[in-house]
């Protein structure tokens, strides 16, 4: 039995190292400015075709929020060569699946097909870029879809507006102050011409990165890409204005109410640097130390030992321009929110004063090693990482060497970064409370 367990363990370890092997890729640019990334992996007959556009909620006009997310839906409506309502039917009939998602910084579309349908995936993505049909019927249809999504995922979701309330206090100038889904009255007011102008500005090859990953023949795929994407004309260069926030020099306090909750929450949030900065990586490690897993500092103290909290979490919400480092807790019983925050602050102060133990440091290093391996354990994961590192980080090689950044971080850096960013006089404090019944 022991021999069997040993064999299984060795096999699992070998598999882990196999998945952790270097991700090979080819990066090149078409004449129209579209960046192309190819990754060949013939271990399974699967291929993913994906396009990431460097457009998100931060690129919208202040009175037309939600436009980027709206396009995530609108561009499945159909094209000049794909009839309205046929997109998903074509994909499923060919044994595939597809989806899209939007953030403040980018929009990502992808299809996963059996590898013999790679040309179909490329044709469909080229159709989305070259021949989209943007008409009033599609706009009206997707307007209702987006409204329903907002009702389900935000308005009627417990704590669904929490992050939005934090961002209002965190950012006064930068578009991050808004939400990705936007304001419905802005979408209602938008004209068809405004939707068409948004498409013309941002959905151009020189604002897009195409990724083809999986069971492919690179030379054949390159010919297909030239065929379907090469003729697409380059768009106007996109000029983005850099918007800088003033430092937070005193606590910004706020209160928000949510009719969907019964338990209040306390949030302390700090503005942090771009995800591209080394300090952002250090803050990720601090979050893991504080709240990842039941043996983490805050969970063990507040949930297990003192039984003061139902839940506690620390997270660095890193983005292209800025990040938001948030500490979140739900009290247990009659524990005051201020008491809970004071207990959290005590642990933050310890990090700022003392070096974390060697044992804890090694533990979080191991967690990041494991996360790194898992992120590259599927073709879909690799494709998403290749696009993200290229578009948002400007360094596609991070798919292989980002873990080296974490490996190089020291305990002393953790202490110094905590001192630099997690200051009580430079944060947002939000009490998120159940909404009382109106009398």
TrEMBL record:
What are the recorded GO MF terms, alphabetically?
A: metal ion binding; metallopeptidase activity
The UniProt record lists the Peptidase M16 C-terminal domain at: 190-367
| Residues covered by the Peptidase M16 N-terminal domain | 36-176
Secretion signal span: 1-20
Which InterPro entries does UniProt cross-reference here? Metalloenz_LuxS/M16 (IPR011249), Pept_M16_N (IPR011765), Peptidase_M16 (IPR050626), Peptidase_M16_C (IPR007863)
Name one matching Pfam family: Peptidase_M16
Sorted alphabetically, the Gene Ontology BP terms of this entry are: proteolysis
Q: Which UniProt keywords apply?
A: Hydrolase, Metalloprotease, Protease, Signal, Zinc
Say which family it is in. Belongs to the peptidase M16 family.
Protein name (Swiss-Prot/TrEMBL): Insulinase family protein
What is the organism of origin for this protein? Paucihalobacter ruber
Q: What is the lineage of its organism?
A: Bacteria, Pseudomonadati, Bacteroidota, Flavobacteriia, Flavobacteriales
């Amino acid at each position: 039995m022991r021999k069997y367990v040993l064999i299984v363990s060795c096999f699992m370890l070998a598999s882990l190292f196999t998945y952790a092997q270097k991700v090979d890729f080819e990066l090149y640019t078409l004449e129209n400015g579209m960046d192309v990334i190819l990754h060949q992996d013939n271990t399974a007959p699967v291929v993913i075709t994906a396009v990431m556009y460097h457009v998100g909620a931060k690129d919208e006009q202040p009175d037309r929020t939600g436009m980027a997310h709206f396009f995530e839906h609108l561009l499945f409506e159909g094209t000049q060569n794909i009839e309205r309502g046929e997109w998903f039917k074509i994909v499923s009939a060919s044994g595939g699946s597809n989806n899209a998602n939007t953030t403040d910084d980018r929009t990502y579309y992808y299809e996963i097909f059996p590898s013999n349908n790679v040309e179909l995936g490329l044709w469909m993505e080229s159709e989305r870029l070259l021949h989209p049909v943007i008409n009033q019927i599609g706009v009206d249809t997707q307007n209702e879809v987006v409204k329903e999504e907002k009702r389900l995922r935000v308005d009627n979701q417990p704590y669904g507006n929490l992050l939005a309330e934090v961002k209002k206090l965190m950012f006064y100038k930068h578009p991050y102050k808004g939400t990705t889904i936007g304001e419905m009255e802005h979408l209602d007011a938008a004209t068809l011409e405004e939707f068409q102008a948004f498409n013309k500005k941002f959905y151009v090859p020189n604002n897009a990165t195409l990724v083809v990953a999986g069971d492919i023949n690179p030379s054949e795929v390159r010919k297909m890409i030239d065929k379907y994407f090469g003729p697409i004309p380059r768009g106007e260069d996109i000029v983005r204005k850099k918007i800088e926030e003033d430092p937070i020099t005193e606590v910004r306090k706020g209160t928000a109410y949510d009719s969907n909750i019964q338990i209040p929450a306390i949030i302390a949030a700090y503005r942090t640097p771009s995800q591209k900065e080394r300090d952002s990586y250090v803050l990720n490690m601090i979050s893991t130390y504080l709240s990842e897993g039941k043996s983490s500092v805050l969970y063990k103290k507040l949930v297990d030992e003192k039984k003061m909290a139902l839940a506690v979490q620390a997270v660095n919400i890193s983005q292209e321009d800025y990040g938001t480092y948030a500490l979140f807790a739900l009290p247990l019983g009659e524990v005051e929110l201020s008491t809970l925050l004071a207990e959290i602050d005590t642990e933050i102060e310890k990090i700022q004063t003392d070096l974390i133990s060697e044992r804890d440091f090694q533990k979080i290093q191991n967690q990041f090693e494991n996360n790194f391996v898992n992120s590259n354990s599927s073709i879909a994961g690799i494709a998403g990482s290749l696009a993200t590192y290229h578009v948002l980080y400007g360094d596609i090689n991070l798919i292989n060497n980002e873990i080296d950044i974490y490996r190089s971080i020291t305990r002393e850096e953790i202490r110094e970064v905590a001192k630099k960013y997690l200051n009580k006089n430079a944060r947002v404090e939000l009490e998120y409370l159940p909404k009382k019944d109106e009398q």
